[in-house]
Specification:
The structure is a single chain. This protein is mainly α. Among the domains are: 102 residues, Orthogonal Bundle (DNA polymerase, domain 1), CATH 1.10.150; 119 residues, hpI Integrase, Chain A. It contains 13 helices and 6 strands. The strands form 2 sheets. It has a 3-stranded antiparallel sheet with strand order 1-2-3, covered by helices on one side. Strands 4-5-6 form a 3-stranded antiparallel sheet. The longest helix is centred in the N-terminal third of the chain and has 21 residues.
C-alpha cells in the first residue's frame, strides 16, 4: 500500500491509498482540524504525519483500532531507524494520539511493555519556584523522545557582510534585509503584500504564524531596499497580490514560492565563507542581536511573533562567541586586580 497526501477539487487535503482510495478516518480528522480554523500549513503538517503513520501501519500490518502505547514504542523505533529528528518524532506521536482519540473516543492507555518518561523529583512538598506550596498530582506523562538542547549560532558580522555583497538583485537584498533587521520567517516574507510596507507611518505589517498578526517599526534601510525593488525590478504588469514575485522565466510576475526563496540561499552557500547562511539563521541572528542590545524578553517575544516566551528564550541563548567575549573581559579584569602578568 502506498499512502500519499493530495489536494482534492475543493482545495482540501486528503489521505489516499493507491489501492483502496481515500482513507475515511484520517480524512474526517483532517476535516475536523480544518474546521478549527488552523493554518493550511498546520493542516498539511498533520497530513504528512498521518502519511508516515499509515505507511507504518501497512508495513507492520497494524491498524489504528489495535494501536497501543507498546506499539507506539515500536513506531518510535521505526522512526529512529528512518533518521527522523526527535522533534519530528514527538509531533508524530502527538498526531497519532489525537487521531486515536478522535476515532475511538478514548485516550491511548499504557499497557505491558510500554515505558514513559518520569517527572523530575523535587522533594516532598517543594514548589520548584518558592517552596511554599504542595506539588499538585500530575497526570501521567505521555511517551516522548528526548530532544537534545542545541544552540543555534547566529551569523557573524563578517558572514552577514559577505552574504549581502553576493546579492545582485534589489529583490534579494530586500528579502534578506527584512529577515535580518525585522526577524521575519520565510513564510512571512512570502506573504508580504505591497500595502504592508507603510513608509509614511514607518511600520511593517506582518501576517504571522497562527494568524498572529503584528506590526514592527520599519527600518529606513528596509524601506529603501523595498522601494528600490518595486521601482526597478518588480514587473509593472504583475497581478500577484504578494510583494515578492518571480523576476524571469515563464513564471515572471507570479508570487515567489518557498522553493524559489530557498534557492536564493542554497546557491550562495557553496561559498564556504557563508555556508551557514539560511533564512532561519538570519531570523535567529536578529533575535540574538536584539538580545545583545538589551531588548527585554516580552518586547522581543512580540517582535518575533512567538506565542510562548519559552520559544523566545531558545533564540537568545548565548553563542560561544558571546561567552568567549565575556570571559576575556572578565579574565582581563581579574589579571588587573591580582596583578597577574605573563
Amino acid at each position: 500500500m502506498t499512502v500519499s497526501l493530495r489536494l482534492d477539487g475543493h482545495g482540501q487535503y486528503r489521505l489516499v491509498d493507491t489501492r483502496r482510495g481515500p482513507i475515511a478516518e484520517a480524512n474526517r480528522f483532517l476535516d475536523a482540524v480544518a474546521v478549527r480554523g488552523l493554518a493550511r500549513a498546520t493542516i498539511r503538517a498533520y497530513g504528512f504525519d498521518l502519511v508516515i503513520l499509515y505507511r507504518w501501519f501497512a508495513r507492520t500490518r497494524r491498524s489504528l483500532r489495535i494501536l497501543s502505547a507498546e506499539k507506539l514504542l515500536e513506531y518510535v523505533g521505526a522512526q529512529r531507524l528512518a533518521g527522523a529528528q526527535p522533534r519530528s518524532i514527538n509531533r508524530r506521536l502527538t498526531t497519532a494520539r489525537l487521531l486515536y482519540r478522535f476515532c475511538t473516543g478514548r485516550e491511548l492507555e499504557d499497557g505491558p511493555g510500554a515505558v514513559g518518561p518520569s517527572p523530575h523529583y523535587r522533594g516532598r512538598g517543594r514548589d520548584h519556584h518558592l517552596g511554599l506550596h504542595q506539588l499538585t498530582r500530575r497526570r501521567r506523562l505521555k511517551l516522548r523522545v528526548k530532544v537534545p538542547r542545541r544552540v543555534v549560532e547566529p551569523l557573524s558580522g563578517d558572514e552577514v557582510r559577505r552574504f549581502l555583497r553576493s546579492l545582485r538583485r534589489y529583490r534579494d537584498l530586500a528579502i534578506v534585509h527584512v529577515m535580518l533587521l525585522c526577524g521575519l520567517r520565510s513564510a512571512e516574507v512570502l506573504q508580504l503584500q505591497p500595502g504592508d510596507v507603510l513608509r509614511e507611518d514607518g511600520q511593517l505589517r506582518i501576517r504571522g504564524k497562527g494568524e498572529r498578526d503584528r506590526v514592527l517599526p520599519l527600518p529606513h534601510v528596509v524601506a529603501r531596499s523595498v522601494s528600490d525593488y518595486v521601482r526597478w525590478e518588480r514587473p509593472a504588469d504583475s497581478t500577484s497580490p504578494r510583494l515578492f514575485v518571480v523576476l524571469q522565466g515563464r513564471g515572471r510576475g507570479r508570487s515567489m514560492t518557498p522553493a524559489g526563496l530557498r534557492s536564493l540561499f542554497r546557491h550562495r552557500r557553496r561559498d564556504h565563507a557563508v555556508a551557514r547562511a539560511n533564512p532561519h539563521r538570519f531570523r535567529h541572528t536578529f533575535g540574538a542581536d536584539m538580545a545583545r542590545a538589551g531588548v527585554r524578553l516580552p518586547i522581543l517575544q512580540r517582535m518575533m511573533g512567538h506565542a510562548d516566551g519559552i520559544t523566545t528564550l531558545q533564540y537568545i541563548h548565548l553563542s560561544m562567541a558571546d561567552i568567549a567575549d565575556e570571559y576575556q573581559r572578565a579574565v582581563g579584569e581579574l589579571q588587573r586586580r591580582y596583578q597577574v602578568h605573563r
